[in-house]
Amino acid sequence: MAEPREVPDFQRTWAIIALSGSLDDATVDQVEREIAQLYGEGARLIVDVSELHFLDDHGVDVLVLLAHHMRRQGGLMALTDRRGSIREALGRAGLPDLPPLFTSVAEAMLALDHD
User: Fold this and answer.
1) Cβ of 3: how many Cβ atoms within 10 Å?
2) Strand order of the sheet with strand 44-54?
3) Based on C-alpha coordinates, what's the Rg of the chain?
4) Left, alpha or beta for 100 (phi > 0: left; psi -120 to 50: alpha)?
5) Dmax of the chain from CA atoms?
6) Mean pLDDT within 81-106
7) Residues in a beta bridge with 44
8) Gap between the Cα atoms of 19 and 12, Å rounded
């Protein structure tokens, strides 16, 4: 007789989204769809904004609201930006470290995995 096996948990707890172009309504919908697929305490979201060419105050607000949403759901969110342009936009908004910003997806994954 075969031993019973545990059924793996296929809940999605990680998502990595790469944004490009402008952060606008169409991009926000994509991000919201990804977030809707994240489940449970400890969900992690990484948003790579390295290829964004335009980010205004509205876009910054969206990113900050997403970070707050993830925290309310018991998860975490980080941004990655190889070019460093997002740091300036967040600094102008008075939010240099919210959400946390990293230079690579690997760096963000390590940091979120240890939180």
Assistant:
1) 4
2) 14-22, 44-54, 76-80, 101-102
3) 16
4) beta
5) 66
6) 79
7) 14, 76
8) 20
CA distance 27 to 25: 5
Q: Please state, in angstroms and as integers, the Cα–Cα distance from residue 73 to each residue in 21, 44, 61, 70, 93, following that order.
A: 28, 10, 18, 5, 24
pLDDT of 17 strictly over 90 = no
Closest C-alpha among 13, 26, 30, 108 to residue 70 = 13
**Beta carbons within 8 Å of 64's beta carbon, 6+ residues apart:** 93, 95, 98, 99
- Residues 56, 88 contacting (CB under 8 angstroms): no
Beta carbons of 113 and 98 less than 8 angstroms apart: no
Q: What does the alpha-carbon distance between residue 102 and residue 84 come to, in Å, rounded to a whole number?
A: 9
Whether the per-residue pLDDT at 107 is higher than 90: the answer is: yes
Q: What pTM value is reported for the model?
A: 0.77
At 10, the pLDDT band (50, 70, 90 cuts) reads: low
- Contact yes or no for 31/38 (Cβ under 8 A): no
79: which 2 tokens? 């941004």
Q: At 48, is the secondary structure helix, strand, or coil?
A: strand
